[in-house]
Structures are given as C-alpha cells and as structure tokens.
C-alpha cells in the first residue's frame, strides 16, 4: 500500500522529466544532426539513387548508366544482377533482406522481381509476356506493384504472394500499388470512374478505398507504416500545386512545404516521421523530414559540407534516411543519413534533469 502523497510525488517527477525530455529535439523524435554516408557507385557506372532502407541499415537502389540494382551493406555496394536483360532497378527491402524491384528480361520486357539471398525471382505478369513493375515489399515477402493487363490495355495494381492478384481500380482504367505494410494493407493510386481523376487508395480486406484529395483533382499514396498511417501527395484547390499529406484514419492532413509551391512525402516510419522533398522559396527542391508538426530541410541538419540533398525517399524505424543528392564534386549520389542523438552525458548535464531522473528512479524502486 502506498501513500497518495508518494504517488503524487512520483507522478510529478515523471511529468517534469517528460517536460524536460520534450525540450530535447532527439527525445521528441527529431534528430538535431545527421552523419552522411556517400554510397558511391557500382564500378562502370556514374551515378546512384537510393530507394529503400531496412531496420539494419541495408540500402537498395540503382546505379547508371545502364540501370543496375544495388544492395549496400557493411560499407560495400553489391550488384544484384538481373533477369537476363541489361537493366534492373531496386525499389525496396524488408528486414529479412529481401529486395523488390523490376528488371528487363532477355526479350527486353521489364518484369517485377523479388530477390532473396542474391537469387532474383521473376514474378511474371498478368498477360504472360506483358510488363510488370515491383514497387514495395513487406516483412512477409508480399510484393506490390503494377502490371499490364492482356493486350497492354491498362496497368493494374497487383499483390503477389505465390501468384499475382489484380487489385482492380477505383472505377477507371489504371491503378498502381506503391507500398504494403506488415498487415497486408496496400496503398497507391487509381483512376476514378470515367478516368476523371486519379486518387490515392487504401486496399484492405478485399476492398479499395478512395482516400480523396487535399481539394484538387489528383492524389497519390506512396507509403504506409505498421499503424496504417499513409503519406503521399495531392493537388490542392485550383490544381496549380501539390502538397505532401499524412492520412491517419479519416482525412488528409496538409504537411505544407519548405516555402515553395510543391512537396511530396515518400515514406513514413513507425514513429510517424515523414520524409520527402519540397520546393523552397528559392525555387529548388530540397529533402525534408517532418516530425512533431514541423517540416525541416535536411540540408540544415547534416554536418557534411558541399552536399545538397534533393530527395529523401525512405526512413527506417531508427530514423536512418536514404535518398539522392549532389556531393561536393557535383555528382549525383545515393546517401545514407544516420541520426546523431544527444549523448547521455549531455542529457544528464541539463539543469535539474539528473536530479529529476534520480528521484523518479527512487520512487519507482520503492513501489
């Protein structure tokens, strides 16, 4: 049995420690700075783009000239090969290291692939030789993307387990699936009835739900996290510009821009941190991170000199970010950002915080 005064003291200790922690940027979910790793290029290529990062910091993307899928791990970039043709691109990777993308076959037709332990599996298509494109993969190895229907009449979103399932459309001709979470929820965009517009969708339980827009005609869902939070972009009223959005349950939230007219959100992690790119007031596009209601230019958060980050395309639950930018030599390069948290010693040096934490610990140990 504990006295009410003791409980109140303990609760106040936790409240004060929470308030102090909230004043520290990394504790609130936004890193103060990032270290930057230049992922370089595969031999014989001149530029690189990063498209996905998993929980262990493995990165996938592609290098050019002549597209080649890569896997970056432990400081080394590995060429993932192809499906018999000359080109391949990697778009995503799950925590087991399975990679999704698309590659040309010996006939020069692109097919979706799933690569496991370096072995690339051709996922085929709806119409035999027709093209397909792998875009996203979840922890179970389920793959989503789009594939051309028989006769190349349309492109339809698909879900691949052991075979390719057509997810349909929102009443129009085409649909595209971009991401899938651990629960099997799929997001993308699809044409509406009469092809009047293309709207973001959520596919779950066998149904495709129209997520609407930010007031304009078109919208696109590009990523979904385990909690079902969805990000992408949408035209705003007037259809003159588009903004990044966050959809969490019932309506789209406009995430704004970095001062320009346009922004797109490409990814969201379990903590709700969002990354993408946005036009600035100077008319250029910069990579951003959105957390705790604030959009920040990632270029202001890196210690590397001479770099300009154009796009942030993926973020893992540890807050590592990948994308593409220009390095100090002006070369187009894939990058990996790793957040640098405030050291524990600096945290304890914050006025009063060490005392509050000690008091909280004593209260908790006395229960």
Question: What keyword list fits this structure?
Answer:
single chain, mainly beta, Neuraminidase, 2 domains, disordered N terminus, about 375 residues, four-stranded antiparallel sheet
Poorly predicted runs of 5 or more residues: 1-31, 345-367
CATH topology of the largest domain: Neuraminidase
User: What is the 3D shape?
Assistant: globular
Give the N-terminus to C-terminus distance in angstroms. Answer: 9 Å
> What's the CATH architecture name of the largest domain?
6 Propeller
Q: How would you write the strand order of the largest sheet?
A: 1-28-27-26
Task: Summarize the SSE layout with pairings.
Blueprint: H1 4-22, E1 33-38, E2 47-53, E3 59-64, E4 68-73, E5 76-79, E6 84-93, E7 99-105, E8 110-116, E9 119-122, E10 132-137, E11 143-148, E12 155-160, E13 164-166, E14 171-180, E15 186-192, E16 198-204, E17 207-210, E18 215-224, E19 230-236, E20 242-247, E21 252-254, E22 259-268, E23 274-280, E24 285-291, E25 294-297, E26 308-315, E27 321-326, E28 332-340, H2 344-348, H3 353-365
Antiparallel strand pairs: 1-28, 2-3, 3-4, 4-5, 6-7, 7-8, 8-9, 10-11, 11-12, 12-13, 14-15, 15-16, 16-17, 18-19, 19-20, 20-21, 22-23, 23-24, 24-25, 26-27, 27-28
Task: Provide an overview of this structure.
The protein is globular, with a radius of gyration of 23 Å. The longest helix has 19 residues, at 4-22. A hairpin with a 5-residue loop joins strand 26 and strand 27. Helix 1 runs antiparallel to helix 3 (353-365). It has three helices and 28 strands. The protein has helices spanning 4-22, 344-348, 353-365, and strands at 33-38, 47-53, 59-64, 68-73, 76-79, 84-93, 99-105, 110-116, 119-122, 132-137, 143-148, 155-160, 164-166, 171-180, 186-192, 198-204, 207-210, 215-224, 230-236, 242-247, 252-254, 259-268, 274-280, 285-291, 294-297, 308-315, 321-326, 332-340. The chain has two domains: 1-24 and 344-367, no CATH class; 31-341, TolB, C-terminal domain (Neuraminidase). The strands form seven sheets. A four-stranded antiparallel sheet has the order 1-28-27-26, with no helix packed on it. A four-stranded antiparallel sheet has the order 2-3-4-5, with no helix packed on it. The protein is mainly β.
